[in-house]
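Encode chain A's predicted structure.
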Amino acid sequence: MEMKPLVKRKKYMITGDSSRVIVLPHIPGELSRIGNIILRVLSLSNEETEKHLQETLEHFAGRHKNIAFQFLRHYDRVAEYIPKSSIVNNTQKILIGAYLTMEYSIESAALFNPSIIPHPDQTLLPKGSMRFIMSLRATGEGHVSSIVFRSGIIDENFLFNFDSVSEYVETPAMVHDTFYDKKLFQLKLKDLEAWDETSETIMSKISGVFTYTELRLSIQEVYQNPDFQTNHRTINVINWLANSNYKIRFDDETAVSERVIFPVSSNESKGIEDARFVKFTHDDGEVTYYATYTAYDGHSILSQLIETKDFKTFNIATLNGEGVKDKGMALFPRKVNGKYAMLSRQDGENNYIMFSDNLYFWHTAELIQKPEQPWEFVQIGNCGSPIETDKGWLVLTHGVGNMRQYSIGVILLDLDDPTKIIARLEEPLLSANENEREGYVPNVTYSCGSMIFNGSLIVPYAMSDVASRIAIVNLDTLFKKMKFRAK
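Encoded structure for chain A:
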């Protein structure tokens, strides 16, 4: 019998739209400049203030939902610099906020490195269909990356019907964790080598479950004690840790394609990179969607974890331990032998696996794969979370060959002992063809997560770090082409 073709590329291209813009604070770093802007606006007459605000709203209100509210949020950031003798009305506040605001085109440079998972809502679907959510890395001015989403339905014939993409993009409201766990917080401080007399004194003044406000008050009390020698580095680490763990919440009325997770904390100020989403099933059957991503501040990287159940509310937390010092963490979709399991990169060259009793702490890693084939001689890594099949854990890898060509490969790990590779595809599953090799980073195919549907592997992948498309891989054909190792 003639074997089915292994890979079928879909024609549909997922490209960025430079008209999709968000508003961001655009506040000068110098206090004198902030004060000068405020004074110039306050010097306008009431008629001039009304005129300039109306012109601004007419020009920009159609591009954003409730932009006046955004202006007020940015005004609040500088309200303390308003002269005490000044009485500022609401119109002046909104106009001051407008002068401290800029538009940012989140997808103007690229839309790439996708991952795909089943949508939490699988109701009211045609027979044999599945609703999905796709995450993508959007990159704009200054190469700052954020996470955006697309949604749609795939039918039994592998036809993709994407939901319409909204012209609006919304950033969420941010709140610090409602409560912090004291024991977990202390463990993180110890892991960061910031457990000393200063941190011990601060933590001794708060309860086992505490709020951000309680933490700030305890820090302030220690600072104001003239008899206590404060370690300023420890204070900075405590603040950094608290600000790295937060919650974001989108309005219920926003469409999936309107939601963007844009950098908000200092450790990710230059980008949120390569989110690998996975549908995780807990021991009790509960489902949580997790994603690991790399936070970048322009100098160093930090592995972070996203947690959500509905893609409206997202909890952001730091990952800790020696095992998460590099990029490319990919969580298994369930515990393995009673432990959380994660693929990782430790040295920028090989593939590793880690196990942990605690989702937020990863200390030791075991090498499972080195480059073997010419198309991966430079380095290898994962292309998303492992996928459970009856034959083993299916893992997509990326390999870098000569001329920095990135290809996608496949390995199969033992279900009971995923430290063992039981099969591999010796040739690349996907490499850039002539229509995919030109872009921001030429000759690259890359994915952050795939899923199984109707006996096939659905692989969304990036083309040369500029746009994305989808490939369909027949599983039976894939397994027949893989080389299984003797037991």
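The domain at 7-16+106-173+246-484 is CATH 2.115.10.20 (Tachylectin-2; Chain A).
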